[in-house]
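Run: sequence + guanosine-5'-triphosphate -> complex structure.
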Amino acid sequence: MSDTIYALSSGALPAGVAVIRMSGPAVELVLNRLCGVVPEPRKAALKRLVDPVSGDVLDEALVLYFKGPASFTGEDVAELQCHGGRAVVARILDVLSEFEGLRPAEAGEFTRRAFDRGRMDLTEVEGLSDLIAAETEAQRKQAFRQMGGGLGRLYEDWRKRLIHMRAMIEADFDFADEEDVPGSVADQVWDQAEGLIGEVDQHLEQSKSGERLRSGLQVVLMGAPNAGKSSLLNAIAGRDVAIVTEEAGTTRDAIEVHLDLGGYPVTLVDTAGLRETEGRVEQEGIRRAQARGEAADLILWAMEPGGLAPDHSVSGLSADVRQSVPVWIVRTKVDLETLPERDSSGTTLEIPVSCLDKNGLEALIDRLSGFVGEMISVGEAPLATRARHRHFLRDCRAALHHGFTRDDLPGELRAEDLRSAADALGRITGRIDVEDLLDVIFRDFCIGK
Ligand SMILES: Nc1nc2c(c(=O)[nH]1)N(C=O)[C@@H](CNc1ccc(C(=O)N[C@@H](CCC(=O)O)C(=O)O)cc1)CN2
Ligand SMILES: Nc1nc2c(ncn2[C@@H]2O[C@H](COP(=O)(O)OP(=O)(O)OP(=O)(O)O)[C@@H](O)[C@H]2O)c(=O)[nH]1
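>> structure
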């Protein structure tokens, strides 16, 4: 029999109300001892909570009981919705810890129980985790849909089709001889497999947006020392996040702010100014700046009047970065000079901004929003949202492709490819052999979820 787990499921204290949740076989006993009755399932009941040992009244709380299996975890579950004071919660948790068979829940353990009882598949679990982490509206929508099973159903549908295809081929072995005749069952099946490869490819392509939406785009501010990077970060964020001084080399470690651009998440990163330096701390800062640049989706290169361009040989971006990451040149401190709006060819090369009088700031933010909207274009179809999904989708595709192209191999071997492809999808939803993945997935959860 499993332990009964308990945890504070609501947020930081003090708070108006705190929710203490428990799940497991001892729940009814605990309720009986704490509030004298087990309330009717799914009906909130206002009860005095009493310490069964000392007889002390602990609090007056709303108590909710869910009789398993009709609960979040599938086990008996109870919630004590008590006053959100630190001492109130501490005392109740302390009293719970004294019960035989009760122990504090580990991160994600309530959800883990729901998964173990087959109430959620892994994509739904991940969706729930993403929902709690969501910071913008578009992230919330994507996570909510995934939590509701949108993505899992797509993979389950593909998996069923693959299992059916394999069954067709295997049934055919019993009748036909090995000759592969045009129009045969095998031919029809491999036609369907080809169609599915196309669907997987399209899904993988569209899912770049799903992953970007989940993790947010990285926009990295780079440039020479004193170019105005930290001022720009503060101006875009609308608050003082980074330290601004007239001293070159102020920013050492990368500083991040999370922005919500029209519902899309962006992490804006301020980095150390690039220059030759003897200072060890500053050197490390510069190394980190280049590393952040390499991982960026977009670099904003801050360039003050008379400042250095990104292709400067000593204090510029590495050739690797310049090739793989789009770079926008932001002309900073334009209050100090008047700039020609266009170069000789007539294109606008530089984005002029002043953090002093805020000129150009809105135009820069609008351009950023447009860029982000293009990079993250999500429609109605459910998208993969994690490297884990992409990994197994590629396995699935590779197996399908192998079976489809190797018509020189015996039918049994090609049928085996259909099985591998189906299994790869089963690993995404957690229907197949994922024990080794679970700890990693649940580790990211909060306690009490
Ligand atoms: N107070 C409270 N609020 C909460 C949760 C919770 O656990 N407690 N949730 C936790 O994440 C979310 C709601 N999710 C839930 C999902 C399933 C069930 C549940 O009891 N399911 C049963 C009965 C379904 C029904 O009657 O329709 C079942 O699926 O069998 C409860 C909450 C968000 N708000
Ligand atoms: N006139 C004017 N001065 C600015 C503007 N933006 C920044 N400055 C000044 O330029 C100096 C350097 O600004 P920072 O934002 O610290 O520059 P940084 O690029 O982050 O510098 P490091 O952290 O040293 O790499 C400060 O004295 C700012 O007040 C601007 O738009 N106009």
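>> summary
Residues 223, 225-231, 244-246, 248-251, 272-273, 302, 332-333, 335-336, 354-356 surround guanosine-5'-triphosphate (ligand 2) (CB under 6 Å). The longest strand covers residues 57-66.
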